[in-house]
């Protein structure tokens, strides 16, 4: 029965025309974004921002699941309604970030391994009891001189697989997130080489741990040149490299692929996802969608700035970005939609 439940939840998360909203920033990261915009770095400000998100009208038209942070999953709206209840009643599946962050990998300078396996079984059971139906764990892989090492890739893939097995034991769908970072001056080709190494090892470890592939969602990075690379490839080149890499490494049994935005601008993340679906949709064995954070939230955050009077306009901006990504999921996003959307938001 648990396997059937996992598959059903994964299918709901990958519902046609929708994607995942990542609102699982840690408190320090959220506070940094607030500080840059002059917003108080307090628990109440974080709660108010998250209430703005979960109560956005029409959010469920484009969003099938929301990834929360530990603080967030326990918070409520000003009227006392838990965020979990608001989302669930809207038809949005609730998830939660469960790793405890990337720490320095001993013996490997410049590399990290994600921690959080200790006590994870009990934490997953507690999250499931309050309404979570999926979880997320992020591993980070840096590209550089001599990086990544085999040790870094193997350690992170093993941790992702053990986390995924524990999730499925608890009845939660694991979102498996191996992120090859955009920082650096590497080329698109180098990113593709590392991406292939990472995905092959991740799926080898998932197999070893007995993880049900139909009950997971993969959350990879798009294959991109480093931010400091002198040549920035176009939409079609990125789409071709990314989807070709996935087709060669990701088993058809996987429930879906939901890209992280990884620091891309909101518009570029949408355009790249749309190009992939437009060029390859008929060839894909799994759904290809989004699991964006800043690429959906940042425009709304810049409007809100902690001011109650800006909530409605910020929510319109959030709903617009979510709708743009819904269009991208279907290969139908056009940059002109943002110009029209901005007029609507301001209006």
Order of helices and strands: HEHHEHHEEEHEHEHEHEHEHHH
Assigned CATH class: Alpha Beta
Oligomer: single chain
Name the average pLDDT.
96
Number of domains: 1
Fold-level CATH name: TIM Barrel
Helix content: 40-55%
CATH superfamily: Aldolase class I
**What kind of sheet is the major sheet?**
8 strands, parallel, barrel
Number of strands: 10
* Cα radius of gyration in angstroms: 19 Å
Distance between the first and last residues' Cα: 49 Å
Structural class: alpha/beta
CATH architecture: Alpha-Beta Barrel
Task: Report the total helices.
Answer: 13
Strand order of the largest sheet: 1-2-3-6-7-8-9-10
* Percentage beta strand: 5-15%
Low-confidence stretches: none
Structural overview:
This protein is an alpha/beta fold. It has a single domain (2-346), classed as TIM Barrel, CATH 3.20.20.70. Helix content is 48%, strand content 14%. It is built from 13 helices and ten strands. The longest helix is centred in the middle third of the chain and has 21 residues, at 188-208.
List keywords for this structure.
TIM Barrel; 10 strands; 347 residues; 13 helices; 8-stranded parallel beta barrel; alpha/beta
List the topology elements:
Elements: H1 2-13, E1 19-23, H2 27-36, H3 43-54, E2 63-68, H4 70-73, H5 83-89, E3 93-97, E4 102-104, E5 112-114, H6 120-129, E6 134-141, H7 150-169, E7 173-180, H8 188-208, E8 217-218, H9 235-249, E9 256-259, H10 266-280, E10 287-292, H11 294-304, H12 311-329, H13 336-346
Parallel strand pairs: 1-2, 1-10, 2-3, 3-6, 6-7, 7-8, 8-9, 9-10
Antiparallel strand pairs: 4-5
């Amino acid at each position: 029965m648990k396997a059937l439940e996992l598959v059903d939840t994964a299918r709901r998360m990958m519902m046609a025309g929708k994607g995942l909203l990542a609102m699982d920033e840690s408190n320090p990261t959220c506070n940094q974004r607030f500080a840059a915009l002059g917003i108080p770095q307090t628990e109440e400000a974080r709660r108010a921002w998250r209430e703005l998100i979960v109560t956005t009208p029409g959010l469920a038209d484009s969003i099938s699941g929301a990834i929360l942070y530990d603080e967030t999953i326990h918070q409520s709206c000003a009227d006392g309604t838990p965020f979990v209840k608001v989302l669930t009643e809207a038809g949005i599946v609730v998830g939660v970030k469960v790793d405890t962050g990337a720490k320095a990998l001993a013996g490997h300078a410049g590399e990290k391994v994600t921690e959080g396996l200790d006590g994870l079984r009990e934490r997953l059971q507690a999250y499931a009891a309050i309404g979570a139906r999926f979880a997320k764990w992020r591993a980070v892989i840096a590209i550089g001189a001599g990086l990544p090492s085999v040790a870094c890739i193997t350690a992170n893939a093993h941790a992702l697989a053990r986390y995924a097995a524990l999730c499925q034991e608890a009845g939660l769908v694991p979102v498996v997130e191996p992120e090859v970072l955009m920082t650096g001056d590497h080329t698109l080709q180098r990113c593709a080489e590392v991406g292939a190494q990472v995905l092959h090892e991740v799926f080898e470890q998932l197999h070893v741990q007995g993880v049900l592939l139909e009950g997971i969602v993969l959350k990879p990075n798009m294959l991109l040149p480093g931010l400091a690379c002198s040549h920035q490839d176009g939409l079609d080149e990125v789409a071709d490299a990314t989807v070709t890499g996935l087709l060669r490494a990701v088993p058809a049994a996987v429930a879906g692929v939901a890209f992280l935005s990884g620091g891309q601008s909101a518009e570029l993340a949408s355009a790249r996802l749309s190009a992939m679906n437009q060029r390859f949709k008929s060839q894909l064995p799994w759904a290809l969608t989004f699991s964006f954070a800043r690429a959906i939230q940042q425009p709304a955050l810049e409007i809100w700035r902690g001011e109650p009077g800006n909530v409605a306009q910020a929510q319109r901006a959030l709903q617009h970005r979510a709708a743009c990504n819904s269009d991208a999921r279907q290969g139908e996003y056009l940059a002109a939609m943002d110009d029209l959307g901005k007029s609507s938001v301001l209006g």
